[in-house]
Amino acid sequence: MTDEFDILRKLLEKSEKNGDKICFDIEIFDILLRIIGKAVANIDTGEISFSREILSNLGEELYQKMKSLRQ
């Protein structure tokens, strides 16, 4: 899972604010779907705590990037 988050971080680094819009690399949607898909698969197998951790980490990465772009 760390590979996906490493890719996500690199893609988030490329994002930029353009006026009142935030521009992301199109590949970010692929990695977001992979991360969310793994979380859902873990819920299906009963690994709810691991899924919570995945989604919590995802939320934190996105929040930190949005916070830095607002400054």
Characterization of the model:
There is one protein chain. The chain has 71 residues and is mainly alpha-helical. It has one domain (2-70). Helices cover 76% and strands 8% of the residues. The protein has 3 helices and 2 strands. The chain has helices at 2-14, 27-44, 48-70, and strands spanning 16-18, 21-23. It has a two-stranded antiparallel ribbon. A hairpin with a 2-residue loop joins strand 1 (16-18) and strand 2 (21-23). Helix 1 (2-14) packs antiparallel against helix 2, helix 1 (2-14) runs parallel beside helix 3 and helix 2 packs antiparallel against helix 3 (48-70). The longest helix is centred in the last third of the chain and has 23 residues, at 48-70. The mean pLDDT is 94.
| Mean pLDDT, all residues | 94
Helix fraction bin? over 70%
**N-to-C SSE string, H for helix and E for strand:** HEEHH
Beta-strand percentage range: 5-15%
Q: Report, as a whole number of angstroms, the end-to-end distance.
A: 30 Å
Features:
mainly alpha, 71 residues, two-stranded antiparallel ribbon, 8% strand, 3 helices
Summarize the structure.
With 71 residues, this protein is mostly helical. The chain has 3 helices and 2 strands.
Topology (SSEs and partners):
Elements: H1 2-14, E1 16-18, E2 21-23, H2 27-44, H3 48-70
Antiparallel strand pairs: 1-2
Helix pairs in contact: 1-2, 1-3, 2-3
